[in-house]
Amino acid sequence: MFSLDWVYYAISWILLTWHSAWDAIVPAEAVIGTNWPWILAIVFLVVTVRVILFPVFVKQIKSQRAMQALQPRVKELQEKHKGDRETLQKEMMELYRKEKANPLMGCLPMFLQIPVFLGLFHVLRRLDPNKQAKTLYGWTVDQFESASHAKLFTAPISGKFGSTPAELASLGANGHTVKLIAGVLVLIMIATTYLTSRQMILKTGWAEDPQQRMVQRLMLYGIPVSLLVSGAIFPIGVIIYWVTNNLFTLGQQQWVLRKFPPPPTAKTGTAARTGAQPAKTGGLLGRKAQPAVKAPATAPKVAGPKPGAKPVNPKKNRPAKRQG
Fold it and tell me: Which DSSP helix (H) or strand (E) runs through 226?
């Protein structure tokens, strides 16, 4: 059976290293009911993982840009093979292979973070003062005891919304406080998870490819809804990790999207292909256009004489000249 012990050892090492660093700076005693060295250790565990995964995130952005550039060709294939789903999928896979675009690359950073999440979940779940094995995964007894009693606003970081009375008693925690802190964090976790997906979709637009669009819908709606249920079994420390990771993602995506803006949308391309010119609202350099000068009115044309009519002598109608 595949063992994840190497993940547990790696997560423990990063967590304990950051705790040692912050323990030398921040008071170990609880401030506002919070043991900040452990909270900051979890926050900087996120920073460490995200720095390691930054090159993968850049590849994700490049892959999404490539997918956007291929949207017109994907649409052509959809029109060409309408009703023949099997041929459409083959043609699209061949197109992605030739252009070196991967529709699943958008989920790769999230998939790579799953072992980290599972590792932290496993490590924090075993922070029970009554456990006998306190030196597992490189922990010392003092570190284990310190983490077991670490709190966020008096709620233990190993407690969760669905903790049983026996679990709360072993942690010496108040059930109402744990439910309140965990419940608020779960709501923040759901909101920030939704915002990270929405931010990317608003900037890049919905994909034309049905497979890619399905992934986008799953990211935008499916995962936040699932957290409403699964959040009840997450220890508070894990939720802190998730919320911090989401906030980091929001900031990182905003920076990347500003530095590498998405290509023009399909609507802009359509206007360019049809040669349609946008309506001008101003003159050169944005100055207000001046109204056109009206051409001077031309003298009315004199109708010619009707057939059979006597010719008119224009001299008779002129006034007589004055004599000097």
Answer: helix 223-230
